[in-house]
Amino acid sequence: MSFSDLFDSEFKQRNKGHFAAIVRVALTDGIVSEEEKAFINKLATKLEIAPSEYEEILENPAIHPINPPYLYSQRLERLYDLARMVHVDHQLGDKQEVVLRKIGIGLGFTPSNVNHIVAKALSLVDKKVDFDTFAYEMQNMHK
Q1: What sign results for the dihedral spanned by CA atoms 64, 67, 68, 71?
Q2: Which of 113, 115, 117, 41 shows the shortest CA–CA distance to 78?
Q3: Segment 77-100, tens digit of pLDDT
Q4: In terms of C-beta density within 10 A (0-12 exposed, 13-18 middle, 19 or more buried), how is residue 69 classed?
Q5: Is-contact 61 20, C-beta < 8 A?
Q6: Which InterPro entries match (predicted)?
Q7: Residue 89: helix, strand or coil by DSSP?
């Protein structure tokens, strides 16, 4: 196995973990709306999820670990995607917020700050900010 194959494999595993986390959030209320399904489909394409992997993850998203990214900016990007999924059906149920906090911890945010981080992320997504604004606001929320 070449070095590039190893890197490519690790990249794909992270993408599958991220996609599975999004699917977990979508499934927490027991219903995947058309808007959620469209978001999931778009994300699957963006993350280069193969059709067979797509079906496997939809059937059982818990089989893939979250695999937190090393860079904080990448953690924010994943949090942004997750918060948008929670917001997509415009009904933030308790289960969805709990799952989002758990996944936030899995992404590497500390348990002592995750509630504040999730609340801020959801408020920004509610305002329909783009990712650049989201990242800036999240990085500067304590200033």
Answers
A1: negative
A2: 117
A3: 888 987 887 776 555 556 667 777
A4: middle
A5: yes
A6: TerB-like (IPR029024)
A7: coil
